[in-house]
Automatic annotation (TrEMBL), chain A:
Gene3D superfamilies: MetI-like. It holds the Pfam family BPD_transp_1. It comes from Sphingobium amiense. The keyword Transferase does not apply. InterPro entries: BP-dep_ABC_trans_perm (IPR050901), MetI-like (IPR000515), MetI-like_sf (IPR035906). It is found in: Cell membrane. It is a multi-pass membrane protein. Belongs to the binding-protein-dependent transport system permease family. The lineage of its organism: Bacteria, Pseudomonadati, Pseudomonadota, Alphaproteobacteria, Sphingomonadales. CDD domains: TM_PBP2. This is Carbohydrate ABC transporter permease. Its main location: membrane. Signal peptide: none annotated.
UniProtKB/TrEMBL annotation, chain B:
It comes from Sphingobium amiense. It is found in: Cell membrane. The lineage of its organism: Bacteria, Pseudomonadati, Pseudomonadota, Alphaproteobacteria, Sphingomonadales. Residues 78-287 form the ABC transmembrane type-1 domain. This is Sugar ABC transporter permease. PROSITE patterns: ABC_TM1 (PS50928). GO terms for cellular component: plasma membrane.
Length: 273, 297
């Protein structure tokens, strides 16, 4: 039998590939603990440098990061919550009270994701300018709510379809109102699906950078805009950039690790289980 | 679809009414935010509208479009959009498939391997671009320059010599996990008995891959192509923080952005935006057809 030996070879090869893929992140993590001088030293230093937390202290103490973190949290949580508030009733209706048009509506909703946002950039930029919504949290929240709404509806729909309709009907017979049916009966049953939907649209909102770079500048700038400011020549400090990067991606990377399967399933709308 | 679950229960029309009421908010929200900007963009694309110019917005017919089509920056941007998508798809699906095939055979530490592989997917685009540009690809003391020096080679100046491919590499790194995870998930539900039967019949590993595994993966690959294309059409932050545009690396999304932000030409930018929408629709049409065909098979 040559199977075990080939399995060992494949395992080693797979570990090399996985480490290569994760390398940019691991390297950034290492760099974030170096001094600026050691960060740009050539040849690069791997573990033999004097470890320091100074970069993290600098990033955390310089006003901009806390503001950006606060904006990112507000925008991601706000837009995800709004998207769920709109998507739960819509997905309930599509799963349990479908009409002849439901299928068409679902496909149409999805097709709005195929339009590149740049097609809507100009009117939205000008509306926002005239209505004072540029560089406000509300302005970004509205945009990201709409952007994630189709994904939320599709994900919730495929989750709701797995809930036995008899349970809802039994509740209806017992005189549950529509809101009770959705909030008291359906929501607890579909809680895992709701949670993974929330995490997916939260992640997409957290990482969204087209709208945040175009409609925010200082007041409502989230972490995506904060980190982009490091691309200017005066912002080029590798160690500090690394620390700021780690602080910006940490929450979502951890969430992503925890629910990777559901997230991939969500992004393919259940087409791949 | 599920008419049977609805018919027969009491209050059917009541149910239908509440169904419509509950879909309405989401529908109206999407309708307003997708149709309204579209109409306004069409209008802007037909008038002479410059943010710094005179305020009389004269109707100029298709002049913005002819100006756009003769703009020396337009064709490169269109080509860059396509090239970027093609390069990212090739890298992410090619490598993703290879790594998925490897991971499928691994016994030790599969959970940790998945975590390592999936990580780049959750890195926000500006961060990914900055890390690659400064820590890895920097020509003087970046990590790749060090690797090159180990082999006695001259460091490659990525963004000066191959700006678009450098950006494609960064974007591909972010989308590799998506392709890899979907293909891995599909591989794991592949019928083992079928493969073992083929092995017993003496089929070579290559033949098994070519005639059993690859056809089985046609549908997940089609899904990856479609989903990635949707997101790749609007790649923006990676260009914004690395090259900041320029003819060699601007795609359509970036062209519209620079027409508004640097030239204040709303009319021309609107025309470019609509061309981007048209372009996306043509691509989407072929993609949906391709996915539909592989679903039938």
């Amino acid at each position: 039998m040559r199977r075990p030996r080939s399995t060992i070879a494949f395992t080693i090869l797979a570990w090399c590939c996985a480490l290569a893929i994760a390398f940019p992140l691991l390297w950034t993590l290492l760099t974030s603990f170096k001094s600026e001088l050691e960060a740009i030293s050539f040849p690069p230093k791997f573990l033999h440098f004097s470890w320091t937390l100074a970069n993290y202290r600098d990033v955390l103490s310089e006003g901009d990061y806390p503001t950006a973190l606060y904006n990112s949290l507000a925008i991601s949580i706000g837009s995800s919550a709004f998207a769920l508030m709109l998507a739960v009733p819509a997905a309930w209706a599509m799963a349990f009270a479908p009409s002849r048009h439901t299928r068409f509506l679902m496909l149409w909703m999805l097709s709005t994701k195929m339009l590149p946002p740049v097609g809507a950039l100009i009117p939205i930029f000008l509306f926002y300018r005239d209505w004072g919504l540029l560089d406000t949290q509300l302005g970004v929240i509205v945009l990201l709510t709409v952007g994630n709404l189709p994904i939320a509806v599709w994900m919730l729909y495929s989750n709701f379809k797995e809930v036995p309709v008899e349970i809802l009907e039994a509740g209806r017979m017992d005189g549950a109102s529509l809101w009770q049916e959705i909030l008291v009966i359906l929501t607890p049953l579909a809680l895992p699906g709701l949670a993974s939907t929330f995490f997916l649209i939260f992640t997409l909102a957290w990482n969204e950078s087209f709208w945040t770079l175009n409609v925010t500048s200082t007041e409502a700038a989230p972490l995506t805009a904060f980190i982009s400011s490091f691309s200017s020549p005066q912002g080029l400090f590798w160690a500090k950039l690394s620390a700021a990067s780690m602080l910006s991606i940490a929450p979502v990377v951890v969430i992503g690790w925890l629910c990777q399967r559901q997230l991939v399933r969500g992004l393919t709308f259940g087409a791949v289980k | 679809m599920t008419a049977s679950t609805v018919s027969g229960s009491p209050g059917r029309s009541h149910l239908r009414l509440s169904g419509r009421l509950l879909v309405a908010p989401a529908l109206i929200m999407l309708l307003v935010t997708s149709i309204l900007p579209f109409i306004v963009t069409v209008r802007f694309s037909l008038i002479d509208y410059r943010l710094l110019g005179p305020k009389e917005h004269v109707f100029i017919g298709l002049t913005n479009y002819t100006r756009l089509l003769t703009d020396p920056a337009f064709l490169p941007a269109l080509g860059n959009s396509l090239l970027l998508i093609a390069q990212v798809l090739a890298i992410s699906i090619g490598l993703g498939l290879g790594i998925a095939l490897l991971l499928e055979r691994v016994v030790v530490g599969r959970g940790l391997l998945r975590i390592l592989v999936v990580s780049p997917f959750f890195v926000m685009p500006p961060v990914a671009a900055l890390l690659w540009k400064n820590l890895l690809m920097a020509p003087v003391s970046g990590f790749f320059a060090w690797i090159a020096s180990l082999f006695g080679l001259q460091a490659f100046d990525w963004f000066a010599r191959a700006p678009l491919s450098s950006i494609a590499l960064i974007v591909a790194w972010q989308w590799l996990p998506f392709a890899c995870l979907i293909l891995l998930t599909s591989l794991q539900s592949f019928d083992r008995e079928q493969r073992e039967a083929a092995e017993l019949d003496g089929a070579s590993p290559f033949a098994i891959f070519r005639y059993l595994v690859l056809p089985y993966l046609a549908r997940p690959i089609a899904i990856v192509v479609m989903m990635e294309t949707i997101f790749l059409l609007s790649v923006f932050a990676e260009i914004f923080v690395t090259t900041g545009g320029g003819r060699a690396s601007s795609n359509l999304a970036f062209l519209v952005y620079s027409q508004v932000m640097f030239q204040y030409d709303i009319g021309a930018a609107s025309a470019a935006g609509l061309v981007a929408v048209l372009f996306a629709n043509i691509l989407a049409y072929f993609l949906v057809r391709a996915v539909g065909r592989s679903l039938d098979a």
